[in-house]
Amino acid sequence: MDDRYGEGLRVRREVLGDDHVDRALAGTTEFTADFQDLITRYAWGEIWTRPGLDRRTRSCVTLTALVARGHLEELAMHVRAALRNGLTPDEIKEVLLQTAVYCGVPAANAAFAVAQRVMAENQDDCP
């Protein structure tokens, strides 16, 4: 295991949680193995480990990007990650309100529905 992969796996687990990462890795096939390696080394080992932004800020940026692109399944995962990274439900609400202006009201409307569902499911974990 190279340093970027190992560091990426550590950060991926801290941000997304062991259960999620274990499921993702357990579902790895010969076809998806290179992709799992890529996202662990590149997204988590190169980008999420950079010192220029803290994890809370990275979560805000990630939520916005996912809303803008309409990636609602990934959005749910990253709402949970944002809570784990210390964002409050009110801060997540503010990020989503911001996306309404810059990404569009329909995109923000869908995002609010996803975030509300995730927060209700993770009520005990919300600050």
Automatic annotation (TrEMBL):
Q: Give the first-level EC class, as a single word.
A: lyase
Alphabetized, the UniProt keywords read: Lyase
Describe the location of the Carboxymuconolactone decarboxylase-like domain by residue ranges.
34-116
Under the heading Pfam families, the entry gives: CMD
Q: Which organism is it from?
A: Microbispora oryzae
Gene Ontology MF term list: 4-carboxymuconolactone decarboxylase activity; peroxiredoxin activity
Q: Does the record's keyword annotation contain Electron transport?
A: no
| Cross-referenced PANTHER family | 4-CARBOXYMUCONOLACTONE DECARBOXYLASE FAMILY PROTEIN, CARBOXYMUCONOLACTONE DECARBOXYLASE-LIKE DOMAIN-CONTAINING PROTEIN
Which Enzyme Commission number(s) are on file for it?
Answer: 4.1.1.44
Q: What is this protein called?
A: 4-carboxymuconolactone decarboxylase
Top-level taxonomic group: Bacteria
Q: Does the keyword Acetylation apply?
A: no
Listed transmembrane segments:
none
